[in-house]
């Protein structure tokens, strides 16, 4: 039995299905199912798709780096998520962020492609002020008392109020 026949039979065994009885899908001397191989065109499309995805990631990383290039931080954090993954999985993210704040000085430290942290009380007051131009990350929405309003205090509506 040839290699192609063994691979074709294994494919249906892994899929848990019965091979089709159609004679166009049968190959080899044992009449076992034939699994079509990747053609040159399919491989070209797959290579093109991977190249497009890689180019998109590189262009997006360069744009994010360029926008925040004047903020200091770990080198790997300026263009990749790997530094953040390593920091979070270490279990000592608070200590690493504190050390980076001391190492790089300044009010802001870059810890990801598009994320800055600060340990300055004055900067936190400015960022949390009303009509601040700074944006909050999505996890702040968990603390909203009214999901449809960004007010500091939301009124309680009760049908039993007198």
Helix/strand layout:
Elements: H1 3-15, E1 26-27, E2 32-33, H2 40-67, H3 82-90, H4 93-104, E3 109-112, E4 115-117, H5 121-128
Antiparallel strand pairs: 1-2, 3-4
Describe this structure in words.
The chain has helices at 3-15, 40-67, 82-90, 93-104, 121-128; strands at 26-27, 32-33, 109-112, 115-117. It is extended and about 60 Å long. A two-stranded antiparallel ribbon has the order 1-2. Strands 3-4 form a two-stranded antiparallel ribbon. By secondary structure, the chain is mainly alpha-helical. Among the domains are: 3-33, no CATH class; 70-143, no CATH class.
> Overall mean pLDDT score?
75
Oligomer: single chain
**Gyration radius over CA:** 28 Å
Low-confidence stretches: 1-9, 23-27
Strand residue percentage: 5-15%
Strands in their spatial order, largest beta sheet: 1-2
């Amino acid at each position: 039995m040839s290699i192609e026949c063994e691979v074709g039979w294994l494919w249906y065994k892994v899929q848990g299905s019965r091979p089709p009885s159609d004679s166009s899908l049968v190959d080899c001397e044992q009449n076992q199912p034939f699994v079509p191989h990747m053609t040159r065109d399919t491989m070209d499309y797959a290579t093109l798709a991977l190249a497009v995805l890689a180019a998109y990631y590189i262009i997006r990383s360069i744009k994010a780096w360029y926008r925040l290039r004047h903020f200091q931080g770990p080198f790997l954090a300026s263009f990749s998520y790997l530094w953040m993954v390593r920091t979070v999985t270490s279990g000592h993210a608070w200590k690493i962020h504190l050390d980076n704040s001391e190492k790089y000085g300044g009010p802001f430290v870059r810890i990801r492609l598009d994320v800055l942290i600060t340990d300055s009380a004055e900067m936190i007051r400015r960022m949390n002020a009303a009509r601040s131009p700074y944006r909050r990350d999505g996890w702040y929405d968990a603390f909203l008392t009214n999901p449809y309003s960004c007010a500091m205090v939301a009124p309680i509506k009760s049908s039993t109020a007198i």
